[in-house]
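hey m, so remember when u said the tokens were messed up on ur end? i reran from scratch. heres the input so u can diff it against urs
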Amino acid sequence: MSLVSIILLVGVPGSEGVGEETYEKNVYIASRIVYTGFMGKRLIDIDEPSLEAAQAELGTATIKATVNEALRLAGVRRNESVRHAFEVLGDSVLLDRGNAWR
């Protein structure tokens, strides 16, 4: 942990000058929370032509925005696929399996 000295210039009552007080303050908080919140940091290689094509298609200006939007879209597509699979399963007529394990 690091301490930082803070110098405050304060008016001293009853005098014409300005006094100087020094305080030591711990500027770090003991916590495992990272400034990115729920975002993870990753070091990855990205194919430049694919990145440029994705930026053009998605209309994004930064690499971060492009990757986040592409991941969001992939997640939406996956959710729709899973929802459809559950609908198919729910609409299916299944055979009675009451005697399957006897």
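this time it looks ok to me. The CA atoms of residues 86 and 92 lie 10 Å apart. if urs says something different then somethings off w ur setup not the seq
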